[in-house]
């Protein structure tokens, strides 16, 4: 077989046969990470297409950290048209939530207090109660602390044996609690927990029950207070009836005076009936 050698091959003999070329990418917009919202220095920074090895907290640190308190800070991550939101606490306390960032991610940091609502016989004695919406003002609080934020239970009004906690639980949890979830179409099921604070063991249970954002606490009235409310209602109705009777009695008197008649002073008869003698004036 014939073998031919070209001039170029002869010149390249004994030279490098594996040349290397270095290419530097100045900017790639699809690989930018955005960190905006309640951070000290909102920014966009570039990362390699394979990722920079940074996590969500690292990206927030690049942006100067969060502005407000950690317990009221939430972090939303947008990736590929989908969004997920977690409390800032979850990123700090649970390393599994502090995931790696990827090119094109957007991180939005915002402030929103976790809140709960209290109804019923709560508040200081002699007041209408401390019903309303309350902030956590902490990363987490328990049920006992939630009741304390509403100034506790009113001694003369509250039924300590009937304190209720309303919340929504996942269907799996509701099933474990023995609830029938067949009538609920969603993933969450409304569940009511009852705690007896008249039992010392109930206080330990309340300290172990963690409050969640959107929970509702209801403190029911005692039976004696309900009976007192009934008697107050009866008294109010009786007083109103007495006032109407006095008004009706006064009508003939006023009518006689308008027509120029002499009206005598009302007298109570022996049978307890009010008699109003009216005499006609002489023309």
TrEMBL record:
Gene3D superfamilies: Outer membrane lipoprotein wza domain like (3.10.560.10). This is Sugar ABC transporter substrate-binding protein. It comes from the Bacteria. PANTHER family: POLYSACCHARIDE EXPORT PROTEIN GFCE-RELATED. It comes from Methylocella tundrae. GO terms for molecular function: polysaccharide transmembrane transporter activity. Residues 32-109 form the SLBB domain.
